[in-house]
């Protein structure tokens, strides 16, 4: 692409961003919000900034339990993101995925769970390209059949790395940083998602694609300075997080607006289909007893 073509492309992207931001602001105006449990939130401090992750014990109870224990034991302090493939994933931990295994217990595969009619399912598509119905459960993008349901590999998802054996994950994890690698669905354990700081995640230092993203030089890596459960933070540093209630009527209206694309920008309307990974689930953070709040994606 020439410089002129690239400049025009950037201008187009900015225009789309401005229009989508306005739409998002309108959508948030009447949105219903769900307060997140401080015991299911983890603060991850990196060289690049702060990332906050919401864990999902309803889908991966054993993985979440071990991850929380490792966080409380300060296991991840000083470790790094050692495999980072641009447009794909950022993987961090003690490198047991590529070196000698560590003594931590191997985790059972928690790739999917049985469907339960009590789950708050908000459908996006009756049948997507992966031949499953897609939707949202408590803010998490998911897919299901009549008998099972699983979380999907959308951007911002946190999942446990493993070797070839399904039950070989233990400590190393990855965050999806690019286009959704949905072919990994039901092949790895998804146990959380980023609710704050995806801009920070996108600044994690990349490795070379032709070297499988491995950042060989230790000083070139983005480092995990610390991890901490939100519930364990000092009262002065405490923050409350809210996410869009994906079971609400207001969120359903947002889905309809994104499916129909009625804005004046589109002179040829896109097909009325919706990729579950292209639906933003916005979050909001505020200090207790404070009117100051900010919205994040």
Question: Your description of this structure?
Answer:
By secondary structure, the chain is α+β, with helices and mostly antiparallel strands. It has a domain at 39-95 and 107-232: Beta Barrel (Cyclophilin), CATH 2.40.100. Helix content is 19%, strand content 28%. It has helices at residues 3-29, 61-72, 198-201, 249-260; strands spanning 33-35, 41-46, 49-55, 80-84, 89-93, 113-114, 121-125, 133-137, 140-144, 148-151, 157-160, 173-176, 189-196, 222-229, 240-244, 283-286, 293-296. It has an 8-stranded antiparallel beta barrel. A 5-stranded antiparallel sheet has the order 6-10-9-8-7, with no helix packed on it. Strands 1-15-16-17 form a 4-stranded antiparallel sheet, with no helix packed on it. Strand 7 (121-125) and strand 8 (133-137) form a beta hairpin. The relative contact order is 0.21. The model is unreliable at 1-27 (pLDDT under 50).
Task: Please sum up the structure shown.
The protein is an alpha+beta fold and 297 residues long. The chain is built from four helices and 17 strands. It has helices spanning 3-29, 61-72, 198-201, 249-260, and strands at 33-35, 41-46, 49-55, 80-84, 89-93, 113-114, 121-125, 133-137, 140-144, 148-151, 157-160, 173-176, 189-196, 222-229, 240-244, 283-286, 293-296.
